[in-house]
Structures are given as structure tokens and as C-alpha cells.
Amino acid sequence: MKYAILAFSLLLGLSCQSKNNKKEVETAKADAPKLILSPAALQEYETAYFASGCFWCVEAIFESVKGVKEVISGYSGGTEKNPTYENVAYGRTSHAEAVEVYYDPKTISFQELVQVFFGSHDPTTLNRQGPDRGAQYRSIAFFKNDREEKVIRNYIKALEKEMVYDSPIVTQVVKFDTFWKAEDYHQDFERRNPNQGYIKAVSIPRLNRFKENFPTFLKEEGAH
């Protein structure tokens, strides 16, 4: 299923790296508190790692998926230690904005998470996703072992065989190394800042398209 990108003319001046984002988040009124699992509780679940544009958008999409227990925004795919948003978002590192997904394999499989990944962004745009441009917004499917790599590559082959996209898939398939958690104000950004400009114009519409196209993957209302 092809992923429709919003016309850039409608998004002029909006991007994930807006310099006003931190100020807006610090003054935003938070929504109802989210159920937070302890680090010990999270260790009971499997992890998967993906990058597909602004992590605010990607986090919200995976948070909506059944079997997903927690999603953390951060940085991965580069070599620099202790990256910061200021450096990553403005292309000063080799990292991409990424998410760490904690999931219950009894409810959702890694292969299904790969489907979510490809079904929720455009994997044919090089170093770009929607209005966000730069290698920090590139498409990456990370694998931790041979089995996961095989799942990713086989799924890409299937998409190509079915000619799902008009252009070649440029998603990088990368061995996972290190994930660096982003600053606290980025976590659950969309949920806590529904009226922020970028969230209203880009992130929420992207989430809604995913929900419309993949209803069987969604959590029941009120489920964590």
C-alpha cells in the first residue's frame, strides 16, 4: 500500500527540527498520565529498532500497535557517543532519529512490526520523510540477528515483487549496535502536545493514515 506524502506547499515552515519545539513542549499542558512500565518490567519483552523520519511520528504509530508495551524515541545508526537532539536533528552526526520498541512476541511478531514499519512511511525517499530532509531522517530497519535480517530482506523482496512502490526502496538494513535515548521532552511528544504545529499538520495525519490502512494492528481503546 502506497504511502501518501503531504504536499510540501502545505508544510512550508514546519519540520521536526523547528527551533521552537523545546520551548513549546516545556510550556505545553500534559495529557492524562501514561502508564509507565519499570525497566525491570520492560526486560520481559523483546525489542525492535526502526528509523523512518521524525521520531515523534514514529513513536506515536508504534504506540498504537497491539502487543507494543513501550516505545522510546532516540538516536541510532551512527558512530558518535552520547548524541544530542541539537546535533542529530541538524545533521551534525551520522545518527538517525529512531525508536526502540518493546513488544510482546506472543501478541505481535517481529515480521508484523516490519509490516508496520513499511506501511507507515515512504521507504523510497532517500534521506527524507515528508517535510523533513537530511540523513537524520533516513529509513532504517535494524536487525539484531540473522533471523531478523532475513525477515526484513524477504519482506523488501516481496514488496518489490508486487511492485507496491513506483520507485526503488532505499531503506537501509543495518545490524543494530547502540540506541541512545532522546531527551525527556521528546518522549510521548505527540500525545502531550497535540496542538503543536508540526504535530497537527504532519504527525497526527500520518498516524491516522496508518490507523485507516492497518486497523487489525491497532490496540483496543484504553489498552496499553
From TrEMBL:
<comment type="similarity">
    <text>Belongs to the MsrA Met sulfoxide reductase family.</text>
</comment>
<feature type="domain" description="Peptide methionine sulphoxide reductase MsrA">
    <location>
        <begin position="47"/>
        <end position="198"/>
    </location>
</feature>
<feature type="active site">
    <location>
        <position position="54"/>
    </location>
</feature>
<dbReference type="Pfam" id="PF01625">
    <property type="entry name" value="PMSR"/>
</dbReference>
<dbReference type="InterPro" id="IPR002569">
    <property type="entry name" value="Met_Sox_Rdtase_MsrA_dom"/>
</dbReference>
<dbReference type="InterPro" id="IPR036509">
    <property type="entry name" value="Met_Sox_Rdtase_MsrA_sf"/>
</dbReference>
<dbReference type="GO" id="GO:0008113">
    <property type="term" value="F:peptide-methionine (S)-S-oxide reductase activity"/>
</dbReference>
<dbReference type="GO" id="GO:0033744">
    <property type="term" value="F:L-methionine:thioredoxin-disulfide S-oxidoreductase activity"/>
</dbReference>
<comment type="function">
    <text>Has an important function as a repair enzyme for proteins that have been inactivated by oxidation. Catalyzes the reversible oxidation-reduction of methionine sulfoxide in proteins to methionine.</text>
</comment>
<keyword id="KW-0560">Oxidoreductase</keyword>
<protein>
    <recommendedName>
        <fullName>Peptide methionine sulfoxide reductase MsrA</fullName>
        <ecNumber>1.8.4.11</ecNumber>
    </recommendedName>
</protein>
